[in-house]
Amino acid sequence: MTTLLLGCIADDFTGATDLANNLVRAGMRVAQTIGVPTVPLQADVDAVVVALKSRTIAPADAVAQSLAALRWLQAQGAQQIYFKVCSTFDSTSQGNIGPVTDALMDALGCSFVAVTPAFPDNQRAVFKGHLFVGDLLLSDSGMRNHPLTPMTDANLVRVLQAQTQRKVGLVEHGVVARGAAAIADRMAQLQREGVGMAIVDAIRNDDLVQLGQALKGQALVTAGSGVAIGLPTNWGLVPSPAAAVLPPAGGLQAIVSGSCSVATNGQVAHARAAGVPVFEVDPLQVAAGADVAAQALAWARGRFQSGLPRGPVLITATADTTQLQAVQAQLGVARAGELVEHTLAAIGRGLVQLGVRQLVVAGGETSGAVVQALGISQLQIGAQIDPGVPWCAALSPAADAQVLHITLKSGNFGSADFFTKAFATLA
Ligand code: ADP
Prior knowledge:
It contains 14 helices and 18 strands. The protein is α/β, with parallel strands linked by helices.
């Protein structure tokens, strides 16, 4: 039976992976779940990140989902709760950072919470309550034109105050620079003054390390992924490769690519040049009614049985901009996307049924579709292959009680040799 230390609720999937990856690097064994699980934890871990998709949904729905996640994490014994929000504090005056933090505070019976999206090493600094993205104030950055959550005010105290009835305060950098004890004192003082939530300044990663120590024993923290670097030490955990150890990898290897990003186009070309066998999925054939998934799987079976040296097969719909636009003009953007995702998801499941136990998936939406088709609800997070892209171990009904190693690469991530390098890091 596992003793869960940290229970995290992330308001989107890639944010969840980012946080999980940071916690692993800071020494925690971590599992990520897709939505609120209906079953207990499958792996022996120190922290769990529940990935929701609640950043821009109606506040009442975000609150309901977050409370459901909280209840599940509490049932697993979580000692501290981490509400993971976007590093650019993406929200509107309706929420959801304020309403969800309020609801978690009420449910946990806690009257004060520290809030910060700061992560200086990743170009997110907070000074005098103002968020900087690189050298720019948040309100001067590209975030001011975001289609769903335009951020036109860099003053996070003001931004958060618009989303909550509780009084919002600030732990200034002058205090943070004096270390963990000074931060804890200031938080206690703010609490006595009736402040319910306080933005915390951080302009160096060490500020987050100090904040992490000051948060020892606090029921809740609302933050980007940066605070993760300072929390594991509160339980005596230090960075160690052991945190990233997954069960041994076996089985066949495959890559399923549905991203059309520049980076993924380069990775497909690199793999092809390296001699990886390639099957191309043609969306127009799918639209014409051909069973392209069955054709791809028959091709893969032939490859696996051919006795050629062990190595991955690559099944790809990846197209350059000209090809993509031609297909989209003919089928429509949404229909083309759906047809391809559906086909690649069936191929992903079929590959695992054929014995693939090491699977690389390229593309954010594509990953969602493949993970769903595989019936995966929990991922144990391993070592990163490239920044932000770790190998994971998962259970899938398609994998016959064996462990499946899977990595979910969002389109623009990863170096040119990602598809071949990934398997080398598992060997
Ligand atoms: P990324 O992470 O690069 O954004 P996604 O998987 O999230 O990748 O999105 C890519 C979308 O493009 C998916 O909906 C996928 O089905 C679609 N797609 C992939 N290849 C093609 C293609 N050849 N023609 C049309 N749509 C495609």
